[in-house]
Specification:
single chain; 161 residues
Length: 161
C-alpha cells in the first residue's frame, strides 16, 4: 500500500486533476474539514466493495484481504497523518523514536512548499533521511517555500526591516 500511496500522492494528488481536492491540505485549515478529506471517501469505496464482494458475493478471501488491507492502511494513515502530524485530534502524543521523528519531520518538510510542484516526501510510513529531503528542497527550482508565520517570524522580519 505504501507504494500505491506514494504514486497516488505524487502524481495524482499533486497532479493537475487531483490538486483540485488536495490543494486545501496545503493551505491553513479554517474549519474541522477540508476538501482533501474527500480522498478518504474515495479510497474507502474500493475497500468496502472488495470486502463486500469477498464476503457476500463469493469472490473469496483474496478480495476480502485486499479490501481489509486498504482499510487497515487508511486507519494507519488517519492515525499518523491526521492525528499525530496535523493534530486534528489532540492526544498529547510526542514522537520520541528516531523513526517517528523522521516521518513527522519529512511530512512537515512536504508542507513547507505552498505549490503542487517542488514538494518532497510523498510516502506516509516511510521517508528518506531528513537531511536528504532538505538538500532536495534547497536544490529545487520549482519549490515555492512557505514564509514562516508566528511571533518568531514577525520579530525576524522586523529586525531585517
Amino acid at each position: 500500500m505504501e507504494g500505491f500511496a506514494y504514486v497516488v500522492h505524487r502524481w495524482v494528488m499533486h497532479g493537475r486533476l487531483g490538486w483540485v481536492l488536495h490543494e486545501s491540505h496545503h493551505r491553513p485549515r479554517t474549519g474541522m474539514f477540508e476538501l482533501n478529506d474527500l480522498y478518504g471517501v474515495i479510497f474507502a469505496l474500493p475497500s468496502i466493495a472488495l470486502i463486500w464482494m469477498g464476503v457476500q458475493e463469493g469472490w473469496g478471501w483474496p478480495a476480502t484481504a485486499i479490501g481489509a488491507g486498504i482499510a487497515g492502511y487508511g486507519a494507519i494513515y488517519f492515525g499518523f497523518h491526521d492525528v499525530i502530524v496535523h493534530r486534528r485530534l489532540e492526544t498529547g502524543y510526542v514522537p520520541r523514536s528516531s523513526y517517528m521523528k523522521r516521518i513527522v519531520q519529512a511530512h512537515r518538510l512536504h508542507h513547507v512548499v505552498e505549490s503542487r510542484d517542488g514538494c518532497v516526501s510523498f510516502g506516509f510510513v516511510w521517508a528518506p533521511p531528513v537531511e536528504a529531503l532538505k538538500r532536495e528542497l534547497a536544490a529545487s527550482e520549482a519549490a515555492r517555500l512557505r514564509r514562516p508565520r508566528g511571533p518568531a517570524a514577525d520579530a525576524s522580519t522586523a529586525l531585517r526591516g
